Amino acid sequence: MSEPAFVRNGETARASGEAAQFERHVAGWAALAAVLCFAVLCGPFFARRVYVADDLGEFHLPVRNFYAQQLARGDAFDWMPSLYGGFYIAGEGQLGAYHPWHLFLYRFLPLGAAFDIELLASYPLLFLGTYLLLQRLVARRDAALLGALVFTFGGFNLLHFVHPNAIAIVAHLPWMLLAADVALATPSRRRRAWAESALALLVASQLLLGYPQYVWFSLLAGVALIAWRMVLGQARRARLVSIGVAVTLGAMIGAVQWLPTWPVLGASVRQTADRGFAKTGSLHPLNLVQLFAPYLFQTRVVGQNTHELGLYAGAVSTVLCLWLLSRRREWGRYRPLVRGLLVFCALALLLAAGEYGGLYRLQSLVPLANRFRFPCRAIVLVQLGMAGLTAVAAVLLFETAIQARRGAHTTDRDDRVLWLAVLASVALALSGPLVWPQYVASPLLVWSGPLLVGLAALLVALVERGVRGAAVALVLFAATDLSAYGMSYAVYGRTAGLHEYVADVALPPDTVRPRAAAPAPAKGPRVGDRMLLAGVTRVDGYAGLEPAKQLDYRDPRSWQLAGAHWAWQQDDDRAGHKRRWVSLSPTAPRVRLVAQTRAAPGAADAESWSLEFVAVEPPLSLPPSEPGTARVVRDAPGNIVVETVCPARQLLVTTESFDSGWQVTVDGKPGTVVRVDGDFLGCVVDSGDHRVAFTFQPRARWLGMLVGACGLGLLMAVACVRWTRCPQACTTGDSP
Q: Quick one: pLDDT at residue 734?
């Protein structure tokens, strides 16, 4: 006799209630784990310390210090005199000078607090966006939260904590994909209008952060999403056009940043790089061992650059992805998503492999993208795909766990893939010291790999069998594993009190004239810009888009022509390689008048450069006379005012770096800027007393502001039309 209907309905209700309770319980713990990870990341901030690891202390903090000072004074911040003897820092991009968020932080908060908040704010934004994206794709909160945890605190995003603009742009990525997917696949016209507007603003925000390589990765991810929806037959042509319009308007709004970046790129050493530059920093295939042995090598990676080559996304992600591949028959409704994610991961991995994968050759054909180095940075796309696969695997795993708890019949379990992962990790721990003895880490670190993979495999097996508490333990283990991996490298042990960090800078003996050179050693990294925090002005420097110079700044003669009084040079002695301040003399004054010029020699002909006979191209015709006198009356960033007295027509020469954005007026009338000695700023003045004003006013900045204002206006107009047209139909309609 069959059971009564009310009995069957009651059992179904109880099963549904148990499933909902399981989902709420695991989701709550996953959210708590994310909060705890973020709290640990914020630990130094709460202790009032500043994050100074790698580029944070050597580049980002010094340039943001200048930025904050200029904002506090209400002065222009585009031109930074203390770097490279003068540098278009806003155009270089990594300052993100025009982004409203940066303008707010560094105008109203102290430097240390603003800097830390800028670094930390990206992570909750990234976590929430990834959760909402995965929730839309997998429709299960606990699995989406686990996937968001894996991506947000995975190896890439924590190791790249030292690149704040990169992480800030990546934090936009899931939101952009979410907005694009809503614009593609949602019936409601009103929701699509909101999504397209959000997409435009997200594109603009990314561009304003000034790190175009990660905007490129976002574009590739968006194209992949559109291609996937097209394969599923869910992308109408009209909606694709609307998305294209939104991206175009976003690019227009962001023009105030990317338009100035073009001339800075064109005047940088990167513009002259050969084709091999695009594959610098390729991900060697041997780095795949990181997935099973994250601490096998001393640097954790095959190569020396840990934060660039780190591929590890956590043992739980590795094991769950393998588990998912072994359950192909159970993919069901997720089959198109899993296949799409697998293709996405494979292509991203080939792109990250650079010269080992081949796709970089296609990228080298794309303008601007062919100037990006470190193709391994496409690891961010690999880990985004892995986070999606982890979320799908978690859905199937948690559904299996719920069935096991009810004693329902499930597919025969096959745990061989779990133990194969453990065996692979053990094999690497055993063979690593034999194959790479000089690169392998300590035994404790080597064997931590099998321990992590083994625990992940064990927890997955327990969850699959419905063991209570196993799912929560899996989530907490994933959070602990990821936090320990990333924060031990880029956060903890690499912070400092701001005042102590600045006070620890070795200053020149004469701090009245702190203009200096700090040449890079013959072998090794360049000297960072930390000394700028203490008031030192460098005639060389450290930046992503290093300006191309005609003088050779490894030659002391070039330092003297640039007005450097001191050189921070490496000193070989019995104690090892140390640096000390060396006095330079004679050195060019800040401004001077010269009466003789000649044609510029080759960049390598350092002996022919002179303080008395400056070189210009073409040479100027000046009458013979005694040099006049020049006095600086204002010397501010992007604004230099000089009073001159000369007996005849002469050339005014400064030690400020030349840039095409400089303009000059003589007694209020426009003059002509002259490039002196290949690298410096000058102009011709007639006999008598004159007031010469150099002002940095690059055309690209004003053009970018104009294009940005037009883009914002067009976006508002389009949005108003979309939101107000046929409001009743827009709410429920399904028209394009």
A: 44
Length of the chain counted residue by residue: 736
Residue 102 CA to residue 123 CA, distance in Å, equals: 16
- Residue of 228, 58, 199 lying closest to 129 (CA atoms): 199
Q: How far apart are CA 256 and CA 709, in angstroms?
A: 9
Beta bridge partner(s), residue 80: 87
Query: Is 222 within 8 Å of 177 (Cβ atoms)?
Result: yes
Q: How far apart are CA 345 and CA 383, in angstroms?
A: 8
Q: What would the pLDDT profile of 291-345 be if each residue is shown by its tens digit?
A: 999 999 999 999 888 999 999 999 999 999 999 999 999 999 999 999 999 999 9
Q: How far apart are CA 440 and CA 289, in angstroms?
A: 13
* 659 CB neighbour count, 10 Å cutoff: 22
CB 385 within 8 A of CB 220: no
Q: Which helix (H) or strand (E) holds 683?
A: strand 680-685
Tokens representing 447 are: 């064997």
Which spans in 592-634 are helix H?
none
At 175, give phi and psi (nearest 5°): -65, -40
Whole-angstrom Cα distance, residue 251 to residue 247?
6
- 303 contacts: CB under 8 Å, gap ≥ 6: 284, 287, 309
Q: What are the phi and psi torsion angles at 653 (to 5°)?
A: -120, 135
Q: H or E segment at 635?
A: strand 629-636
Instruction: State how far Cα 474 lies from the chain centre.
Output: 30
User: CA distances (Å), 260 to each of 79, 82, 85, 661, 671, in order?
Assistant: 12, 20, 19, 10, 23
Cβ atoms within 10 Å of 142's Cβ, excluding its own: 25
* CA dist., res. 532 & res. 529, Å (int): 6
